[in-house]
Design brief:
alpha/beta, TIM Barrel, 2 domains, 13 helices, globular
């Protein structure tokens, strides 16, 4: 694979080249030249865009590929295509499959089946056996087989003692625990954010306290254990405040937010479109503003897609019967940039999509430098475009964004000696 990237602004806060425009020549997957101007003497494919930017390849810390068990919703191959289409050269997949990713053999299945693809796939193993919340899973064995973190995905750990022991064990083996923050006794039966909109349209609400109370408990356990914890996608102002205080107190906690929770608020549910039904739910406008502020002041470390494919049988139902989740890999950057472009620089966004996730996971951050293997994301933050059905690369189609006009478009990715342009 040989390509010439023309007049691209490098977005990489860790590089001396940050903020400068260069031509970048890539030959057989290696960056061979970075200069102000490079002549295309060999007739290589040229990549151009009016406001082209290039950064180290992005990684999504929270996606679901549904394989094994639910391949009719998504499989490893289609999930990789969707990730590439969204600008991700790497993706972490959650363990809520059937069977769950709770033994070394399941981790090895994912690793072996995806090792040759252009997108690096990192499995996340279960925190408890079979995601049942009763016994700690074999984290050490799974880590040796390639698991980069451990979580029960959207199932919160109800047993405080179990979470405490899991954090202690994870600390001993150098593993990362990812916790979903939801008190099911408070959110049970809830369909959307509890607030003015839920009251007006008559849907049972999910109160902010359901997230915040569980987060408070988890943070207190974290303080007791002096371990390390990553908080999966948060959605409320109260959660941002809790995290800010905990970080100020020195707790080793990091946190993520889903891109769509930055852009869409609970008024969208007026339409009763089940594609707006997600967990955590779309919150009020004041929550969205708090989340954006949390990104700006580094209370929130990571932006994730929270990609959750669902087939029509689970999504095209009455609102209260439909499953939660949207496909989001293809739109994660566009949604985040559209929501935050007035507040967050591209440097900030790349930190949340590339640098911070890799540092949290203990993975090497790609480098834009001559002689290095090319692991790059190409994007145009100024390009306005409309997301259409043809842009969907996932097997599932559960997205509210068909027909949505975004600001900021992925141009393509370069990784493992492949260039994959977006549609």
């Amino acid at each position: 694979m040989n390509i010439l990237i023309k007049s691209a602004k490098i977005v990489d806060s860790s590089s001396d080249l940050n903020g400068k425009k260069f031509d970048i020549l890539i030959e057989r997957g290696i960056i061979t030249e970075i200069k102000a101007t490079i002549k295309n003497d060999k007739g290589y494919k040229t990549v151009e865009s009016p406001d082209l930017c290039v950064s180290p390849g992005w990684i999504d810390m929270q996606a679901r590929f549904c394989d094994p068990g639910f391949e009719f919703k998504e499989d490893l191959e289609s999930g990789v295509r969707a990730a590439a289409g969204g600008g991700f050269t790497a993706v972490c997949i959650m363990p809520g499959t059937e069977p769950p990713l709770h033994t070394k053999s399941q981790i090895e299945y994912v690793v072996n089946k995806t090792k040759d693809g252009a997108v690096d796939v990192y499995p996340i193993g279960t925190l408890t056996q079979n995601r049942e919340g009763k016994d700690i899973a074999e984290m050490h064995d799974m880590k040796l087989s390639g698991a980069v973190a451990f979580s029960d995905d959207k199932r919160p750990v109800k047993d405080s003692g179990l979470l405490l022991r899991a954090l202690q064990y994870a600390s001993n083996v150098g593993a990362l625990v990812i916790a979903h923050n939801e008190d099911k006794s408070l959110s049970h039966g809830g369909q959307m954010h509890e607030g003015e909109v839920s009251t007006r349209i008559g849907l049972k609400g999910i109160p902010a306290i359901a997230e915040e109370l569980m987060l408070q408990r988890n943070l207190q356990i974290l303080e007791y254990t002096d371990a390390r914890l990553h908080v999966s996608a948060i959605s409320t102002k109260g959660s941002v405040d809790l995290l800010k205080r905990s970080k100020a107190e020195g707790l080793k906690v990091t946190a993520a937010v889903a891109a769509h929770n930055l852009l869409l608020d609970d008024t969208k549910v007026f339409e009763f479109d089940t594609n707006y039904k997600v967990n955590p739910p779309l919150r009020a406008k004041e929550d969205l503003e708090a989340l954006k502020k949390g990104l700006l002041n580094n209370t929130i470390d990571v932006i994730v897609s929270d990609h959750t494919p669902e087939d029509t049988e689970n999504k095209e139902l009455e609102f209260d019967l439909a499953s939660n989740g949207i496909i989001a890999l293809e739109t994660a950057y566009a949604a985040a940039n559209t929501a935050c472009h007035a507040k967050l620089s591209q440097d900030h966004l790349v930190e949340k999509l590339c640098h911070n996730p890799r540092k949290i996971l203990g993975l090497e951050v790609p480098v834009i430098r001559e002689g290095e293997a090319a692991n790059l994301t190409l994007f145009d933050p100024s390009r306005e475009w409309t997301f259409e059905k043809k842009n969907i690369l996932s097997k599932s189609k559960n997205t509210p964004f068909v027909g949505y006009k975004f600001k900021g478009k992925v141009v393509g990715i370069v990784n493992k000696n492949e260039f994959i342009p977006t549609k």
